[in-house]
Amino acid sequence: MSVRGASATARLPFWHLHLRLSGWRAIPTAIFTLGAGAIHLTVMPQHFQEYRPFGVFFLLAGLAQVSLAAALLFSTGRRMAILGAAGNLAIVALWVVSRTVGLPLGDDPWHPETVGVADAAVTILELMAAWNLIRLARRPWGPGPARTRVRIRSALALVPGLLLTIVGVEAGTEGMPASVNMSAPIAPGQASIPMDSLKAAPGSEPLRSFTLVAEPAQIGGQTAWTFNGTVPGPELRVMQGDRLRVTLVNDLPASTTIHWHGVRVSNAEDGVAGVTQDAVPPGATYSYEFVARDGGTFWYHSHQDTANQLTRGLFGALVVQARQGPTADRDYALIFHEFPGHPIIGPGLQGLAGYVGQAFSGQRVAVNGTTDDLRLLALPGDRVRLRLIGALEGEQFGPLMMVAEPLELVPIGTCYQIVAIDGGDLNAPQCIGPERLRLGIGQRYDLSFEMPASGAVRILDPRGHESVTVGSGPAPAVPDLKGLPLFDPLGYGRPAPVPVLGHGIDVTYQVVLGEEGGIRNFQPELIHTINGKAAPMGTTYLVREGEVVRLRIVNETGEFHTMHLHGHVLTVLDRDGGAPRGSPLHLDSLLVSPHERWDVAFVADNPGLWMFHCHVLLHAALGMSAMVSYDGVTTPFDLGARSGNQPE
Ligand code: C2O
Ligand code: CU
Known about the structure:
By secondary structure, this protein is α+β, with helices and mostly antiparallel strands. It has 4 domains: 3-172, no CATH class; 194-325, Sandwich (Immunoglobulin-like), CATH 2.60.40; 327-487, Cupredoxins -  blue copper proteins (Immunoglobulin-like, Sandwich); 497-631, Immunoglobulin-like, CATH 2.60.40.
């Protein structure tokens, strides 16, 4: 039955009147504004934590949009339409400013925010609502029931409206918590061990003092972030047993820290923002002190906003010369790194854009700051030690950019021994070569060789990126590099007893490396997980002092991951069902190939809260980070957006 005209409406309840007259046309617009309001209210509590006036704004905007949606069902007058369109467009305009030049308010004034899923969904909903309202203002709906065409169009508009609302609300509830505390749980009755009490005891070791000034510098036409004006920063070279005192002076526009990669420091000196210290703010100074217990090749780098700061240039070599063992006539540390100037903006849409840009422009691989052939002095007959340090994330091309295929290096011109990996000496290393050595980010390989009577020794990269030439003799002939065998550390050197294993394993933990598309930090991301969880709410491995802990690492991805544990040494037990056939391997950065499984063990002999993460900076930034936490250890520091600490 069709009802027409005023006489009919008079017999109906008042709400029916309006639904009848304008309802069908009003519903899509109401849904769009209701959706925008719902998303605003979802993210409102997080914004309250961040900065109260922002929270108030989101509350008011959300309430206004919800009321507009309700009002639209009862009245569709011209004035309401103009008001609603103007309100929605004003919010859109504010959003555009905040995403381009930044708002002059809040924790981080005049700093554009990143575009996320929730705010993008809100903006689309607001634009659709505003469009409808403008049309309504220009041509108010007349009385009478809507025609079928209008009904169908309105019904169809519900689909994007509801979808955007669901996606936006979902994204809004998955934001990064404003601050997280990584303290280990404390059992009732157990005394807590404050992390800042875990410092090196005073001692009379020879003291070596260094000052590292973190400062911007112009390098190759780009503004790099440097230690003491160079990339890499100065090489720190000390003797095993020395006490290092390093003063960090922060002259950067951002806060920073220094982490001593591979060095078994006391926990309070580990340099991880939000776990072992607050990031050092611009203009401030911080001092680290530790004893270099182990000889070997290490490096140091920022552990605040690491993916960004390391790529900008904040790293350097740390060489601890062993008290015992073979000496060399020439001893060089070589850091292979990305030429500074491709800073990563972060994960999410914009970071992804940065990576795609980088993938198309190609990586610029540098050795000790130069992209030219690096020449090193050595005379015929000299014993040369080269300490290769991987500071390069790996090749990232187009859609395969997550794979992080490690750098490969081929020494040619002589046979060479690999005397240490990650600072851990190998047992009875034989002279080999040429073979391809894979160097994942964070790993170190120490080569030792004797200079031939005539001729130079070179280190080449099969992809043709870089080369290093040692000595001044004629260059050796270059073999087909890609066809050379791959060096396998598990089949090199000779077996020797491993004291760790004698004791037996106390506890075994699974470390499943995975990835899944999802929303983290308001951003759509290929989230990288450990046991299905992503940082900062990632997996915690609880250990007790004195335990021997086994980690079963299962790589369920098609990517390479360099798994790095702070403050400890990992002894390799097994890879894909095979134990090392040669020298025992004591590493801190495991290069795990696609779909490999590794068993490693460590002795829990260094109490604290220790990061255990993939060293591929992008993977860590996408969540592939866990913690090894000693029972009862607490930290006074927080990480997360509000805290200013962001260790990845
Ligand atoms: Cu090279 Cu978590 O560090
Ligand atoms: Cu990884």
